[in-house]
C-alpha cells in the first residue's frame, strides 16, 4: 500500500515491510530491495537458480519471476518503490499536475537482468553494515514521517544504497585498486585521508596514486572528490536537502568548501546545477 504523506496530503509510492515473507514477490509495478539478515534462501529467479545466505541482498523488478524452493530460518525486510518515485513533481497550483521527464538512473541497473546483473549483487562484508544502516533508517522514516522532508530523506538514503550496490556489483576482484574503491564507496560520507586509502590498499601513496592515474586519470583523493560530487549531483536534483545538509552527507565539513569544489569541477554552482536540471518542473518532494 502506498504511504500517505500527512504533511503534503499526497500518496507516496513506497512501502517498507519489517517482515518479508516472500509470498507475494515481486510486487506489481515496483522495484524491490530485500535485505536478508538471517538464514538462507534457495530459489529460482527467472528460471535461474539462486542461493542467498545472510547477510545478503536481493533486487527484484516488477517483471521478475521468483519461485521459492526453500527457506531456512530466514529473516528479511523489504523496501519497494514505484519507478516514478524519483520523478514525481508538482507544477504551480494554477496548472495541472504532471510528472517531470527527469528520473534517477543511478543504481537502477541492479534491477536489470544480464550476465552481470543476476538480482543477487555482490556485497562486501565491510559494505553490508553501512547498507543495512541506511536501509533501516529509510524504513523507519517511512512510518515515522518525522518532519515534512521525510520523503526527501528517503530519497537520499535510497540514492546512496542504490549507488553503493551498483558500484560494488561492478567489482569482481580484490586488487588494491578495488579495495580502495570499496572503501571510498562505503565511507565517502565520513572524513577520509590519503593515509586511510594507503592503509586500505597496503601500498604507499606513490604506488597508490600511480594506479589511480593509470586507471582513472586522477589521484586517489581526486577520485574520492569526484565521487562525492557525483553523489551530490543526484541529491541536488532529486531531493530538497540544503547545501549544508548535502555537504555533510558526502563528507564535507563546511558547505562553503563543497560549493567551491562543486563549482570548480562542474562549471556552475550547486544552486545553478539544481535549477538547471530540475527544469521545467519543480520537484514535488
Automatic annotation (TrEMBL):
Residues 178-276 form the HTH araC/xylS-type domain. The keyword Zinc does not apply. The keyword DNA-binding applies. Gene3D superfamilies: Homeodomain-like. Keywords: DNA-binding, Transcription, Transcription regulation. Signal peptide: none annotated. InterPro entries: Homeodomain-like_sf, HTH_AraC. This is HTH araC/xylS-type domain-containing protein. The lineage of its organism: Bacteria, Bacillati, Bacillota, Bacilli, Bacillales.
